[in-house]
Amino acid sequence: MTSSTTAHEVAATPTAGERTARPKRAATHFDANPAKAGWLTKTVLIVLCVAWMVPLFGTFVTSFRTRDAANSTGWWTIFTHPSTISNLTLDNYDKAIFGENVDMGRAFVNSLAITLPATFIPLLIACFAAYAFTFMDFPGRDFLFLLIVSLLVVPNYVAFVPMLKLYRDLGMGGTFPSVWLAHIGFGMSLAIYILRNYMATLPKTVIESAKIDGASHFQTFWRLVLPMSIPAVAAFAIFQFLWVWNDLLVALVFIGPGENEPVTVGLTHLKQQLGQGWELTTAGGFFTMIVPILVFLALQRFFVRGLTAGAVKG
Amino acid sequence: MRFRRHGAALLAVAAAASLSLTACGGSSGSSSDSKTVTIWSSVDQPVQDGLEKTLQAKVKPDGITIKWQKVENINQLIMTKIQAGDTPDIAFIPQPGVVKDMVSLDAAKPLDDVVDKSSLEQSMIPGTLDAGTVDGKLYGLLVSMNVKGLVFYNKPEWDQAGYKTPETIDQLNALTDQIRSDGKTPWCMGIESDTATGWPATDWFETLVMKYGGADTYNSWVAHDTPFDSDVVKQAGAEFEKLMFTDGNVLGGRSAIASTNFGTAGNPMFASPPKCWMYNQGSFITGFFPKDVTKNLDQNVGVFGFPPATAGGENPVEGGGDMATMLNDSDNVKTVMKALAQTDIGKDAAPTSSFISPHKDFDMSLYPNDVTRNIANVAYNATSFLFDGSDAMPGEVGAGSFWKQMTAWISGQEDLETALKNIDDSWPSS
Amino acid sequence: MLAKTLSALLTVLLGVGAALLVYWVLNKIAELLPAKWESRVKPYFYILPAYLAIAVYLIYPTILTVINSFKDRFSREWVGTQNYSDLFASAAFRQTLLNTLLWIVIVPAVTVALGLLVAVLADRLSPRSEKLTKTIIFLPMAISMIGAATIWRFVYDAQPKGTGQIGLMNAFIGMFGFDPVAWLQTSTLHLNSLLLMVVLLWAQVGFSMVLLSAAVKGVPVDTIEAARIDGAGERQIFFRVVVPQIKGTIITVFITVTITVMKIFDIVYVMTNGGFNTNVLGNEFWNQLNTNFNYGSASAIVVVLMVAVIPIMIYQVRHFKAEEAAA
C-alpha cells in the first residue's frame, strides 16, 4: 500500500500500488476518460471559452482600427456593417513596432535576455530547496518553510527602494544582473511553495528504497525526484516565464528606460503624457504576446502529457 | 580553490556577464562621460524631438552630446531613481510639488547662478518662475507649457448660430442658458482618466477659484492657508453646479460625467449637428480631437479663454508645463541649462507639435495654426500665469483626495460640503 | 543585438552551471565532514542559496519595512504608532480593509472552482478539444495586467446617452432599450468591485486550471473504477474519490491565489485607482508610496498585510501537521 499524504481511505488495488510506486515515463498515457463528455459538459465549456475569448478578440479587432473609429463605434461593427472591414489598417502595428518612439527589436532582445536567466536559475535553486523541505529532516524545517509561505504576502515593490540603494552602492543600477537577481529573489518563495507541495505528493516509498540502496541525497534528487517533478517544474517554468516577460514594475525600477529596456517598458513610450496613443498600445500589446503564446503552445504538449505522468495525490 | 567562492559564484558569473553587457549600453542614468548630458522627460514625442533638435544645435560648439530619453510618469520614476542614485543630469518635471520633494532630498540644484533671472523675469509670463521656486531659490525652469481653462467649440456651427464669446462669467452663464433654450446641449464634460480620474474637475475648480479670488487668494488656497471649506471655494463650487448639474446642460447628464473619458468627451461637438457645444479643457485636448477635425484645425475649431469674474478686472490664467531641473551641476550641464532658458529653444518644436513657449517674446509666427496662436495669446495677455494647483499641492491631496472627492461629489455620492471637508482633512500635517 | 542575445544564452548556461556547481561544492563539503555532521548540515546547504535570495530580496526589505512603519514619511524621525493610528482612524481605510476582505472571500474560491470545473470537464473531451479549451482559458495569463485593463475597458466602457456605445456591456443592454450604465462607477452592492474581480478571475483561472488539471490527471483511474463498480454516481465519484485525492493541490492553489489577491493592486490602480469605493490595500500602499511619497504610512500598510496573513498561516500549519501525521 503506497502511503499517500492524507489519511483518506481509498480502495486502491495492488496494481494501483505498483503503478504509483514506479516513476512514470512522460509517455505513459492511460485512458483517463472514464466518463465521456455529454452535451452539458460541452455547453459549459463552450460558454466559458466564449466568455474568455470575447474581450480578447474585441481588443484584437480594435488593434486594427483607427483611433477615431475605436472611439466612436464598437469593434463589433465589422460584423454588423461588413463594409467597414475595408477601413481596417495595419497602421497601429506599423507605428508600434517600427515607429520612431521605440526600438521594439532591441526591446525584444532585451526581454529575452532578462527573461531566460530569470526563469531557469530560480527554478533550479527552488528545486533543491523544495527537495530539502520535503525529503530531509532537520531542526527548524517547518519554521523555515512556513516563513517562506508567509513571505509570499510581501508585495515585491516593498523591496524596490532598499534594493535600489544596495545596487547603487554596488554600482549595479540599470544592468541586467540587477533584474535577474531581483526576479530570482521575488519568484523564489512561490517556486519553493509550489514545488514542495508537489514533491510532498510523490510516493515516499521510492525515496526510502533509494536510500536503502545506498543512494546519496544528491543522486536521489537528480535521478528520482527531479524527473518525477517535471510536471510541476514545467508548470512553474511557464508561469515564471510569463510573469517575468510581462513584468513592468521591476524592469522600470531596476533598469529604467534606455538601452536595456524590455518590451514592457518600450510599450509605455507609445502612450503620451495624457494617454494619447493608446491605440498603439493595443497593437504593441498583441505584438508582445506572441512570445508567451508560442512558449505556452510549444510547451503545452510536453506539459499536459508530462503532467499526466506524475501521480499527484493530495 | 573552487569552493572559496561558493556563495559568490553566481554573483561572479553575473558580474562577468554584466561586463560584457555594459559594453553595449550600460546604466540608464548620469553618464560618466561628462561630454554627454542625459535628459529625461515625459513630454510628448514631437515636442521632445523639436526641443532636442534645437538644443543639440545650440550646444554642439561646446562639444556636448544630448541623450534625451522619454520616460513614462517621470514624477514617480525620478523619486525612485533619486533613492537609487541613478539619475539623469536634467529632468523635466511637470509638478511643482515634485520639484519641492526633489529639493528636500537635496537632489535638485539651484539655478539662480546658472540662468539670468532678471532677463527671464522680463521675457517670461508673470508667475511662470514662481512655480519652480522653492524657499526663494529657483530650481525648476519652465521650458514648455500648456494652457488650461480654455473653452473649445465647433467653429462653423457656432458662427452659424451667432453665439458670441463671453467676456465675464455672468455672460458665460447667460450663453449657457441661451444655448439650452435653443434646444441644444451647451456643455460636453468628462472627467474619467484611468488612474487619474477626477483631474479635469480639479482644473475647472482651480480656474474658477482664480477667476473669483485672484492670484493671491489662489496661491494662499494652494498653500492651504485658505482652506477648501471657505467662501471663495464654495463660490466656485456653486458656479460649477450651476453650469454642470442643471438639467439639460451636459451631454448625458450629471451622472455621465464621471464615466466619460476626458479625451473623447469633446468629440460629440463635431457631430452634425453638434451633440454638445462647449468643452472646457487644456490646450492639449486638440490632440484628442478626431483626425478629420484636426486636419483643418483653424476652420473647424474655435477657442476662447475662460472669462474673468469682472470684465477688465484681474484675469489670471491657469496652466501647466514641464520644468527643467538640474540634478548634476557640472559645467556642461549648466551650459545645457542656459540653452534651455533661451527664448528660441522652442523654434523647432513649435511648428510641429503642441509646444507653447512660456516666453512672451517668442516668435508667434512659428506656431502651426491660429488656434495655437489664440491659445498662446490667452496666456501672454493674462495678468498672471498660475500653475495647476493640484500639481503643487501635496500628493495626498493633489493626486489623491482632490481628484477623488470631486469625483464623488459630481457622481452624487456626497454633497459639496462633505467633499470639501474631506479634502481639508486629508491635508498632511507635516 | 546579437551580442546581447548570445550573452543572454550564455548567462543561462553559466548561471545554471554556476548554480549547479555551488550545490555540487556544497555537497562535497558536506561529505568531507564527519558522517554525523554531514546529515545535519546537508539540508541547510540545500536551502542556503534559496534562503540567500529570499533573505536579500524579501526578509531584509520586510524588516526595514517594519522598522520604517514606526518612522515618519521620509524615515527620518521615530513617530511611534502614529502611522497605524492614522490609518485606523480614517474611515476610508476601514472601507479599504472591508473591500480587500471582499476580494479575499470571493476571488480565491471562485478561481479554484472555475479552474477545477475546466480541469475536470476538459478532461472528458478528445485530446485535441481539450488542448484548445485549455489554451483559450490560459491565454489571459500571457497578458500583462496593464494589458488586461485595456482589454476590459472595451467591455465596461460607458459613453453619454445619445452617443454610440463602444463598451460591449452597454451596447448589449442598449439593444434592449436600456440607458447606458457607468459600470465601474456604480458602487451599489459593490458592483464595480465585482467587475474588477472578474478581470482578475479572467487572468487567474488559467493558473489554477493548469495546476488542478495536473492533479486531476494524476488520480489513479482504478480508484474511480472501483467506486463506479460500487455503483457510485459521477457526482459522488467526484466529491468522494477525486476531491480527497487532489486536496493538497487545491489548498496550494487556494493559498497562492489568496495571497495574490491580498496584494492585488495593478487592476484596481489602472481601472479605477480605488475610486467609487473600490480601493484595496495593495492600491492604497502603492499610492502612499508613489503619489504621497509617504514611506511611513506605506510601510504600515504592508505590516497590516503581513498580520492579515497569519490566519492563512495557521491553516497551512495545521494542514502541514496533518500531512506529516499521515505520512
How would you describe this protein?
The complex is a heterotrimer of chains A (314), B (430) and C (327). By secondary structure, chain A is mainly alpha-helical. Chain A has helices spanning 14-21, 39-62, 67-72, 77-80, 91-98, 104-135, 141-151, 160-170, 176-199, 204-212, 217-228, 230-246, 249-254, 263-268, 278-309. In chain A, 67% of the residues lie in helices and 0% in strands. Chain A starts with 13 loop residues before the first helix and ends in a 5-residue tail after the last helix. Chain B is built from 18 helices and eleven strands. Chain B has helices at residues 9-22, 45-59, 74-84, 96-104, 117-123, 155-161, 169-181, 199-222, 231-245, 254-257, 262-265, 291-294, 297-300, 331-340, 370-380, 389-392, 395-410, 416-426; strands at residues 36-41, 65-70, 90-93, 133-134, 137-138, 140-147, 150-154, 278-281, 301-305, 317-326, 385-387. In chain B, strands 1, 2, 3, 6, 10 and 11 form a six-stranded mixed beta sheet that branches. In chain B, strands 8-7-9 form a three-stranded antiparallel beta sheet. Chain B has a two-stranded antiparallel sheet with strand order 4-5. The model of chain C has no long low-confidence stretch (mean pLDDT 86). Chain C has 327 residues and is mainly alpha-helical. At the A-C interface, helix 1, helix 2, helix 3, helix 6 and helix 7 of A face helix 1, helix 2, helix 4, helix 5 and helix 6 of C.
Determine the strand fraction of chain B and express it as a percent band. 5-15%
Report helical residue fraction of chain A. Answer: 55-70%
Tally the structural domains of chain B.
2
Number of strands of chain B: 11
Structural class of chain B: alpha/beta
Topology pattern of chain B, helix = H, strand = E: HEHEHEHHEEEEHHHHHHEHHEEHHEHHH
> Could you tell me the number of beta strands of chain A?
0
Instruction: Indicate the CATH architecture of the largest domain in chain A.
Output: Orthogonal Bundle
Approximate shape of chain A: globular
Q: What helical percentage do the residues of chain B reach?
A: 40-55%
The span between the termini of chain B is 56 Å
**Helical segment tally of chain A?**
15
Structural class of chain A: mainly alpha
Whole-number count of domains of chain A? 2
Major sheet of chain B? 6 strands, mixed
- Rg of chain A, nearest Å: 24 Å
